Amino acid sequence: MTIDRVAHRKLVRKFTAIGPYLRELKSSESHYFFDCLSVCVSAKAEPEAREFWGWWLILSTEDGQTFEFHYQLGFFDASGEWQLRALPKKHEAEVARTLRDFYDKLGNCMDELSLTVRPSPALGNNHLLSVA
Hints:
Number of strands: 5
Structural class: alpha+beta
Distance between the termini: 33 Å
Shape: globular
Largest sheet: 5 strands, mixed
Radius of gyration: 15 Å
Order of helices and strands: HEEEEHE
């Protein structure tokens, strides 16, 4: 089951207001794609050829009320594709910080809308957005 078109458009507006995270073209009425290019690999490269370390997160729902998130960390290549790769040690803290900052904003947005968000069981119990 997907949420209705009006509710979807409202969510897109709210998610867009959080910041530059939502990739609307990769989203649908029950599936929202967010990402963050946290750390540039080389600023010397031309802007359209730059690569980054960061994260991507998928927020999905079956009922329009409860949403489940799953994120991954990795490498955003020059062709604009995410690759699952281990982060260099020196960038782990920054990537984790940007993910947590986003998640705080997402949580506030979901609270305002009286919607529930929870981690995907696939993340397990010990992940970056676990309750401390």
